[in-house]
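dumping this here before i forget
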Amino acid sequence: MDKKKIYSVIMFLFVSIVVINSVVLIGVNSKNNGNSIKSILKNINIDKYIDVSTDEKPQNDDNVDPDFSYDENEDEEKIRTTVVQSARGGIVMEQSTRRVLLDENMNVRCFPASTTKVLTALVVLNTLPLDTIVTVPKEAEGVEGSSIYLRAGQKISVEDLLTGMMLRSGNDAATALAIETSGSVPEFAILMNETASALGAKSSNFVNPHGLHDEAHFTTAFDLALITAAAYDNPDFVRIASLRKAKITIDGEPSYIGNKNKLLTFYEGANGVKTGYTKRSGRCLVGGAERNGMQLISVVLNYNDMWNDTMRMLDYGFDNYDMTPLDESLLQYREGKRPVEILSPVPSTGDWKDIRYPLRKDGSEYIVPKAA
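structure:
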């Protein structure tokens, strides 16, 4: 028998003795302290005696999805205790009309982490052709946090950089895109803020393209929903954000990547958007799903159970609202019904009967147009 097997047998016998002694102690002390077998076993630190190391190296990223990696210096409970003290906010918005269907502190300022990349993608798509070939700048190599492992001087297309940024949350890809777009990260941040402000996102400030923590980098659920709604107007954004997996090419070499967004697998109609996490932001998720012609966007910032909370919120939208044709509700007053004012419901071109607006399924609302 080799030394490794002998060591394993010795450790098994040692742990068995520890367990047996602990169980015996229950009979001695149960009348005094009420301990149960379950509580005794729970507190035995078997890892202290058995080597449980793996080939997986812990990461100290401050910008990664906690479902995929962890910080060796902070356990999950400590992280949770830290982030719950921070602000949090959530929202569900219908994309085409920007109507808010659910408000959970949507105007509270929060740290967005990598959900920032929705705005980065929007700015890039508004500026650069997808087939533009980018030479990776030295500033993008070795950016901390999530990465697609770019090296300075490599060649990669804008589309593949966007794909790596949205699916794998590559901070290096975000940095390369920012510099290609504006020449530097600070200049790109100016463009980010101008874009956000023009969309009505007035309570936000962005200082980088990736969302690594900065006290001056913040947004609200409402602002981020507005930004995402605008991004959804671009079919290339929707196509990239809804990919479950993709092939990207760096210096002519193919690389296959998967999307961190679990909604795409587990939620009916899901078609986006982006995960985010830092110790200061907590768990963040921008979700998107389309059913029966209604495109919903959800945002949760600092929600510990971000997946289930996102599905709960999207379910609320789909369960309680549908896209109602204007000719079924416009100016049809009914006693006890709530009027919903909308701006300029009749388009300058096209048929106004083709316009639909999200109204409650129970028939409790009707539409009233208001002047601009």
